[in-house]
Amino acid sequence: MKADLSPRMKVALYGLMCVLLIPFVFPTWWMVTSSIKPISDIFAFPPHLVPQSYDWTTYSKVFELQPFVRQYWNSAYIAAMVTTGTMIVSSMAGYAFARIKFPFANTAFMIVLLGLLIPSEVTIVPLFQMFLKAGMVNTHWPLILVPIFGAPSVFATFVMRQFFVTLPPELEEAARVDGLGRFKIFRKIALPLARPALASVAIFTFLHSWNLFLEPIVFLSSAEKFTLPQALTQYTDAYGGPMWNIQLAAATLTALPVLIVFIIAQKQFVEGLAHTGLKG
Amino acid sequence: MADVTLSEIRKSYGTVKTIHGVDLDIRDGEFVVLVGPSGCGKSTLLRMIAGLETITGGTLKIGGRVVNDLDPKDRDIAMVFQSYALYPHMTVATNMGFSLEHRGAGKAAIAERVNWAAGILDLTHLLDRYPRQLSGGQRQRVAMGRAIVRNPQVFLFDEPLSNLDAKLRVVMRGEIKALHQKLRTTTIYVTHDQVEAMTMADKIVVLNAGKVEQIGAPLDLYDRPANQFVAGFIGSPSMNFVEGTITPEGFAAPGIVLPLPASAKGLEGQRTIYGIRPEHFSINDGGVAAEVVLVEPMGSETQVTMKLGATQIIGVFRERVSLEPGLTIGVRPDLANVHLFSSADRRRLN
């Protein structure tokens, strides 16, 4: 398609893409550069795109003011568990909805999809009550269990179902003739072929869990248990005002692994989107 | 190897009946082709034999054992699918050895069987490739390899050649037939292509609308079709049909009187369909007058579309004929090959 574009159209297209990039690139640039600026330079007018002076101590202060390593670990292991759990649940549920004939399967799928329409803010209070009664408040369990069995998993289930629907039924029939039962067909045939869709589920889920904000501030109360987005709000001075440069240094450290993972896995990510039929 | 027996096999989807009581005996080692137009139920019947579709009624026996309620894996059958259904994430060798591996065979035994099958099908040099790296014909051979590798009692083929181009189809047709002659495994083969059916089968089962129209050896079906459907389905170009009445003077159709064979005796006065294959006409000045409509020289033969009275028919002549559209010629039907069918129920009369 690119070859068909005239040079003028190409220039216009690239120009448009550059304009569209500004809302994505500028905040990131501002975050990274402000994290090494003295606090007085951050809001200087006119603003400096390139820092005039550097203050690297902000990064060491990130670790001094909060148990940041511990919080990093919290975010990482919660995201890993949520991602693994969601991949297991959504692949099995997606396969069942796509392939297993049972009464009211489509109705059940529609009901499950309704979960996507309910904002998490609506369910957060009843969930809090539930976990309070179960003695799980100020533990990581709500942050692990709610995404695995809640709305984020519904989206992942939808993605997986859309993929499994497109798998040729003959592959499964061949496997049945070869002697495999339902679960082995899922594990040995369907799941290995669903790698692109699983990859996109993994990326979506990891990002969602890594960036989760509302649930941690509701369920967690001690700094040792905080996750990164919640920890970012704790970099304040004695009067509650944000320590901008330290907060932005912490934000940079928080965003870094996600950016790296995305850059490495972006091919899988795009392929996953294409395979799941979500592409326009 | 085993006999396969279908007794009163029926299939319904809710209230819709698709297979209406099929009886069929397939002898051990026989190559049986199920043939019929699209939607006639031939693939459904094959899938019922495979265990991929449930059987609504009747009894299915493989090797003397009733298998109605058995899973495909317990029927000791192997199936080659139209789309080949090779596992895309496995190499040729893994695809072929997959069923053996799943059934707990040792690595050495699997390798031995895979190499044996690969040798027979000329796949040895392709064992490490993935299905996406193979041509259509090679994929077809891998699918067959996967079927033969575990030495099942019955092979089932579901239109295995329909994704191949015409030339390759002829080659693969020969390979499947040769494979059957080598292994002598009972084979049930589904196709809508009557040429495949004629060239490959020991026995053809012609199906239409979920019912068996006729069962027989290919040439029996060709020479003595049981009804007008089989007569029209088997043979290419199809048999010509002219509707009319049997009279003492001959077969009277609109604008024409055709000569009748001796076997038409006793049928006088009956509304009948006169059937004759295109190759059973000869050009003869003393024959019945026919107006040439279209001439199609094929090299080995010439196909001529003609108007015989009010009916358009096709004649195929082995000799080179120089005819022009609009010309009136005399054609003589070979009376030994005239088929008469009842206008009422389309069954054979002579």
The CATH topology name of chain A reads MetI-like fold
* Main sheet summary of chain A: none
Number of DSSP helices of chain A? 14
State the end-to-end distance of chain B. Answer: 39 Å
The rounded Rg of chain A comes to 23 Å
Distance between the termini of chain A: 16 Å
Class by helix and strand content of chain B?
Answer: alpha+beta
- CATH architecture descriptor text of chain A: Orthogonal Bundle
Identify the CATH class of the largest domain in chain B.
Alpha Beta
Q: What is the CATH superfamily label of the largest domain in chain B?
A: P-loop containing nucleotide triphosphate hydrolases
Average pLDDT number of chain A? 88
User: Which residue ranges of chain A are poorly predicted, with pLDDT under 50 across at least 5 consecutive positions?
Assistant: 276-280
Task: Name the shape of chain B in a single word.
Answer: elongated
C-alpha-based Rg of chain B, rounded:
24 Å
Number of domains of chain A: 1
Helix content of chain A: over 70%
Q: Name the strands of the widest sheet of chain B in spatial order.
A: 6-7-8-3-9-10
Are there runs of chain B of 5+ residues with pLDDT below 50, and where?
none
Helix-strand blueprint:
The complex is a heterodimer of chains A (280) and B (350).
Chain A: H1 7-34, H2 39-42, H3 57-65, H4 68-99, H5 105-114, H6 120-133, H7 141-149, H8 151-166, H9 169-177, H10 182-193, H11 195-210, H12 214-219, H13 228-232, H14 244-275
Helix pairs in contact in A: 1-14, 3-14, 4-7, 4-8, 4-11, 7-8, 8-11, 9-10, 11-14
Chain B: E1 4-13, E2 16-26, E3 31-35, H1 42-50, E4 57-62, E5 65-66, E6 77-80, H2 92-102, H3 107-121, H4 136-148, E7 154-158, H5 166-183, E8 186-191, H6 194-200, E9 203-208, E10 211-216, H7 218-223, H8 228-233, E11 240-247, E12 250-253, E13 256-258, E14 271-276, E15 281-297, E16 302-308, E17 311-317, E18 328-333, E19 339-342
Parallel strand pairs in B: 3-8, 3-9, 6-7, 7-8
Antiparallel strand pairs in B: 1-2, 1-4, 4-5, 9-10, 11-12, 11-14, 12-13, 14-19, 15-16, 15-18, 16-17
